[in-house]
Amino acid sequence: MATKHTARLYIDQDLKVGAELLLDGNPGHYLVNVMRRKMGDPVTLFNGRDGDWMAEIVKTGKGRAMVVVRQNIAAQVAEPDLWYLFAPIKKARLDYMVEKATELGVSLIRPVLTDRTNLDRLKEDKIRLSAIEAAEQCERMTVPQVAPLIKLTDLLADWPEDRLIMFCDEDGAGDQNCYPVGRAVEEVNAWQGRPDKWAILIGPEGGFSDAERALIRALPQVVPVTLGPRILRADTAAIAAIALWQSFAGDWQT
Amino acid sequence: MATKHTARLYIDQDLKVGAELLLDGNPGHYLVNVMRRKMGDPVTLFNGRDGDWMAEIVKTGKGRAMVVVRQNIAAQVAEPDLWYLFAPIKKARLDYMVEKATELGVSLIRPVLTDRTNLDRLKEDKIRLSAIEAAEQCERMTVPQVAPLIKLTDLLADWPEDRLIMFCDEDGAGDQNCYPVGRAVEEVNAWQGRPDKWAILIGPEGGFSDAERALIRALPQVVPVTLGPRILRADTAAIAAIALWQSFAGDWQT
């Protein structure tokens, strides 16, 4: 494990031995003001493309630090291609969800407007920052992309043909086409090979409207699943669904 | 679905047709002051033993209501026997965890003191209230028991012979006896029939100490599992582990 005590930071710059990099903005502030790291201290850097690199702080200033990249300490690894589509929820739970989805390894996070979405405002920048922080801490090598808010109808109208949607249908219990996640993935794999592009779609707290449900269920790429007999909050359902997907179709398998 | 708009309350009293019950304390406050329900309004009641019952409010006062039980609307169902053992975490995340574990269907919640537990205070009453609230909202028919705080060493010294522990070992990656959850449950089922008494043990943020890990791994009832290649926070790990257990050994199966 790289580093429980070495700071780990995402930066959007190329990483190679000897590169001198200025860390300012959020990474600089975090490193110098929050973590209180000093000249000579090591720091782990990643950019989502080149793996993890050990760098050394060679100079610090107010909320900024100059570092020199010393060596590659972990190669970039492939990560599952799973989009997380969700109807935005209350602020505190939203941060929480982005953190969880990032730790659990989704590749893209996209807020979706639905008939019952309770949205006062959505700060994509804030979502991106939460995702970066979570990626830094959980030691994943990429930061999930954050795609802009989109209306559900627009999203579905233009849905890529080769990407499946695991639809967590809270009204699907008793529906004979709605399986538990493991069974659903098994069926898909049996019929379609082992498709590796997926998305997970979770509804808003009040559920999708009937018109929305009909639209979703009519899409051939949609795989409806149930998450057990109890009613889950949207955030619980998301974490459970992502963990199950990782376990049956992602990188948590044997 | 019973009731998106009818209030649903847990009460610790016997439920049968015609019973007149006084709801005061928390349930009375919630019903009258928070939900603002009035005479004639229906309310769903459950006590963890007798299923869901429809009752009618026949009188309200300050933070209290008299109700008459009208009819049984759902029979009690059996629930999985899964204990959730965790090292207490920061307050906000603790409430969150209790809510999540309840929604996901654990039967008992027990905080455990470990070498690295960061505990200032623990209010068991508060945990119990969070569990009741979550049970009311997710429409499960029981409220998980809340067992008192116990030291890990004491817990393990007296561990019941017939209950397995799914141990989420954050240092277990690469350990050849440490499988993903599905594989681990499969192995257990193959060797031991289908044991139905389980516990899930999640460590504190800093992980278990080496001495603790050794103690845990030495117990024959312990089944070590991994939760994928990324580092999960204790709360993420708990939700993921419970969802996976439900999916492989609990009531989320086909």
Written overview of the protein:
Chains A, B: One of its GO terms (biological process) is rRNA base methylation. The structure is a homodimer of 254-residue chains. In chain A, 31% of the residues lie in helices and 27% in strands. Chain A is of the alpha/beta class and 254 residues long. Chain A has 2 domains: 7-74, Hypothetical PUA domain-like, domain 1 (Ribosomal Protein L25, Chain P); 81-248, SPOUT methyltransferase, trefoil knot domain (Alpha/beta knot). In chain A, the strands form 2 sheets. In chain A, strands 6, 7, 8, 9, 10, 11, 12 and 13 form an 8-stranded parallel sheet that branches. In chain A, helix 2 (91-103) packs across helix 3, helix 2 packs parallel to helix 7 and helix 5 crosses helix 7. The A-B interface holds A 1, 77, 96, 99-100, 103-105, 137-140, 171, 179-183, 206, 226-233, 236, 239-240, 243-244, 246-248, 250-254 and B 1, 4, 77, 96, 99-100, 103-105, 137-140, 179-183, 226-233, 236, 239-240, 243-244, 246-248, 250-254.
CATH architecture of the largest domain in chain A: 3-Layer(aba) Sandwich
| Strand proportion of chain A | 25-35%
Q: How can the largest sheet of chain A be summarized?
A: 8 strands, parallel
Share in helix of chain A: 25-40%
Sequence stretches where pLDDT stays below 50 over 5 or more residues of chain A: none
Gyration radius over CA of chain A? 20 Å
Catalytic activity (chains A, B): uridine(1498) in 16S rRNA + S-adenosyl-L-methionine = N(3)-methyluridine(1498) in 16S rRNA + S-adenosyl-L-homocysteine + H(+)
Domain Ribosomal RNA small subunit methyltransferase E PUA-like (chains A, B): 23-67
GO molecular function (chains A, B): rRNA (uridine-N3-)-methyltransferase activity
Keywords (chains A, B): Cytoplasm, Methyltransferase, rRNA processing, S-adenosyl-L-methionine, Transferase
